[in-house]
Write a structure and sequence with these properties.
single chain, 2 domains, 0% strand, membrane
């Protein structure tokens, strides 16, 4: 016997599926809006120079406004159902776990640099930072890394001191640099 009434176990076709929304993007939009709003507010508290027609407020206004506009655009796109394309992992194995040992090594090298920059100076601490970061990321040419780090650290020390007039800590090399 045939029935014209659909069986209770059969799914009745429904209307179009609701768009999938990635609500985490709304959190990111909120953070962008807050940071942008605080940046604009902070710009209003800056003083202006008497001879500077542009003043120091322009860039914080532009950056803060840009962040707020991006937050609004992201929120609208999220509410419309736009979902970012998933990372294809071109050369990254997305199934492999994070390499926390490398992260710990990098943090240790950074903390060492922070702790010793006043004592040893930027030239030495910067060289150790470069060589330590290279070692943490897998380099096995320690001598080359130390030499490149030393050249970059001394060059950046002179660039800041001579080029920008900003003295970095000379440390134990005070009087030599």
């Amino acid at each position: 016997m045939s029935t014209l009434v659909p069986d209770a176990h059969e799914a009745a076709p429904s209307g179009p599926a609701a768009p999938r929304r990635d609500l985490a993007q709304l959190g990111l939009a909120a953070v962008l809006a807050v940071v942008g709003g605080l940046t604009v507010y902070d710009a209003t508290t800056l003083g202006t120079g008497f001879a500077d027609p542009v003043g120091p407020r322009v860039f914080p206004y532009v950056i803060g406004t840009g962040l707020v506009v991006l937050a609004v655009l992201l929120a609208v796109a999220t509410l419309r159902g736009d979902v970012p394309e998933a990372e294809g992992g071109e050369d990254v194995d997305l199934t492999s776990p994070a390499d926390w040992l490398t992260v710990v090594k990098l943090v240790a090298v950074l903390l060492f640099t922070i702790a010793t920059v006043d004592l040893l100076g930027w030239a030495i601490s910067g060289a150790v930072l470069f060589a330590g970061a290279a070692w943490s990321l897998g380099s096995r040419t320690l001598l080359r890394d130390v030499l490149v780090g030393a050249v970059l650290a001394v060059a950046s020390w002179y660039a800041f001191y001579v080029g920008l007039g900003i003295p970095l800590a000379p440390g134990i090399l005070d009087g030599i640099l």
